[in-house]
Prior knowledge:
The protein is of the alpha+beta class. It has helices at about 1-40, 50-70, 80-90, 95-100, 110-125, 140, 145-160, 165-175, 400-415, 420-430, 440-455, 460-480, 480-500, 505-530, 535-540, 550-565, 570-590, 600-645, 645-690, 695-715, 715-745, 790-810, 815-829; strands at about 190-195, 205, 215-220, 225-230, 235-240, 245-250, 250, 255-265, 270-275, 275-285, 290-300, 305-330, 335-340, 350-355, 370-375, 380-385, 390. Residues about 180-185, about 540-545, about 590-600, about 645-665 and about 745-785 have low confidence and may be disordered.
Amino acid sequence: MRDGLSRRLLLARAALLWERVWPALFPALAILGAFLVLALGDFLPVLGGWGHAAVLAALGAAFVYALWRAIRLWRLPDVAAARRRLEEASGLPHRPLTALADKLPPGADPDQRALWEVHRSRMARLVRNLRIGVPQAGWGRVDVWGVRAGLALLLVIVASDAGDRWGDRLLRALKPSFAARAVQGAPTLDVWLTPPQYTGLPPVFLQRSAGDSEETVPVPVGSALLAQVSGGKAAPTLGLMPGTPGEPFERVDARNWKFAGEVREGSRLRIEQDGTVLGAWPIEVIPDQPPKVDFAAPPQRTQRASLRLEFQASDDYGVENVHALIARKDGKGGAPIDLELPLPGERLKETRAASFHDLTPHPWAGLPVEIRLRAADGLGQTAESEAFEMILPERIFNHPVARAIAEQRKLLALDPEQRDVVAETLSDLSARPGLYGNDTVVFLALRMAQARLLLDRTGESIEPVQQLLWDTALRIEDGQLSLAERDLRRLQQQLQEALARNAPDDEIEKLISELKEALDRYLREMAQNMQRMDPRDMERVPYDPDRMVTREDLQDLLDKARELSRSGAKDAARQLLSQLQQMLENLRMAQPQQQQGQGQNQAQQMMRNMREMLQRQQQLLDRSFRAQRGQQQGQRGQQGQQGRQGQQGQQGQQGQQGGDQGAVDMGDAAQQQEALRRMLGEMMRRLGEGHGEIPQPFGRAERSMRDAAEALRQGQPGQAVGPQTDALDQLQQAMQSMLEQMQNQMAGQGEGEPQGQPDMNAPRQRVDRDPLGRPLSGTGNYDLGDVKIPDEGELQKTREILDELRRRAGDRARPAIEREYIDRLLKRF
């Protein structure tokens, strides 16, 4: 019990010391808190060097004095005071601890001693549950005004403001700077020039120099000018022309001035205050030149009666939009047709593009028109090209009734006063339903068109009747094919527009899915329509090997465009869709192949054999690479077996067994390579018998295949890679030569060279391949080489970058300026 009492007495003395010293430390701590508020708030450097030093010295002296006074009270209380604290904290009456510490005087008799022991035992029972009590800070006695609460609040505010810069601010507060006195009170000047947004140029901050700057600053017309002056007494002025009075600044507060305006003219930017030139810069206001636009090629009628417009445009800051304006040559018909032509990118300074427009439903189809191109820039300036005169493409109907209806529709467009004549002709056609297969819908449409033309004498019914006649002619000619084609064209245009305006990914994904479905419907309707065609008409269709397109080719093209759009390459996706449109323009003429002549069937079979040979040669090349890699792993395994024991040696034996298995596989590969060589020889024989000259690349490919087969028989796949790569290149060149020969032999059967056909007289180029011998851009028929399509590695890297940007954009702990920059990147790409 004595040890427990001693420990409690020690703690009680410590509590008494705390209650005595802590209130005495309040002045020193309050002075330290005031210093931290001034330091973290970065207020002291504002006072200047001497003022800063004076305040720092005063705070230091006050802190030392207050601390000295507190140290004087650092005396440990005695045991009697500790006993009294324990008694008071425990609520013990009669001071039992003092009684326990007392002793009887010498000479006490036994009765007195017995009574004393009884008293001590009673006091001992009272002190069994002693409490020390919670020490009291006692600041309420010395801080009656609550200064400590205000200091704590200010510390929280300035600490939040300082953030991770608290160390630098403390360092500046402890080190007064006397160098700032020389420039104290001198006005400061900041000038920004922000070009118009449509220019795409970054803002320019004008640096202030000791003297006037002689470097001319280019300033696009319409740039926003923002100037701020801090300091000085009089209002600054800003002038843009020498010898003219400047415009005054606007006062922001007692020390700051601001000027905001727009630069339209001027040669020298000069800012003065109190007769002193704060800054002067020679400037050159750059005018915005109007755009230029012209036809890159004459407008053409495609085989599907679409209008192909190819244009080139330029502007100093980028072309905003290009339109084609089509008006009738005779000036009649009302407002011109306004077609917005898709651009391959945003704000391109120079651009060249082609687009297809189906204007056959328009009443002007088949009439002389004038076409002008109009380009606009970001400022709203426009430019027009010279007019091009042509006959607006019209659809030629094969069905006699559909052709007659189309002629009556054109007559209404030429002379609306002939509606009575048109109505009579429509009445005659409707009276002979056997000519259009007794179609009730066609009959009712003709009757309705006749009635509206006869009953409406105001002319308001002419336009809806023209549309009704067009739909009727399409129903007679194509059935549901024209509706499917119309949906396909509409979705193509919507997708091009969505890519041009950087629409959200969800919208683009939806449009691509709808376009794939529309393409399937169109191909199905086209196949059904061809089954109803006259075989004699199908035989007159010109054969063009370059237009042999499968459904898989078109779907792959759409999938590639989807991947490009997901990775942010919207411009490349738009160019790929333009290629798809070009392929669809040629699709109708390339589809009917069952009823072609025997020579064409043989040519098609030979082309299919060539494609199969290319595919098999590519597979053999890939197989050689895998075998070569397996042999290398086997060699490393043997080296590991010689240098290591145990488990590592077993791995070496497994590698060696893999190499032996690869050698066995190479024997089978050699047989396949030899069979492929014999297949090529047979094809060369048939080509020589049927078409005359054998392309030279065939002979080079045959020799390369022989070398590759020999290397494979020797179990050296690495030696076979080079000959197989050469054989693949030569086969592709031979295939191109075959296409040229077939086109030369079949010249005159079609309507002319197909649009977009490569120049056959141009020298053939070697196919670029990666280190594994594989073509970099694919060998599909849809890859014409005029669009830079990223490979799979580039697409994967782009997707990873986009995912990382999206992750950082959602990280709220990042600085706001960084998140705003990432948001702008994501909106742009």
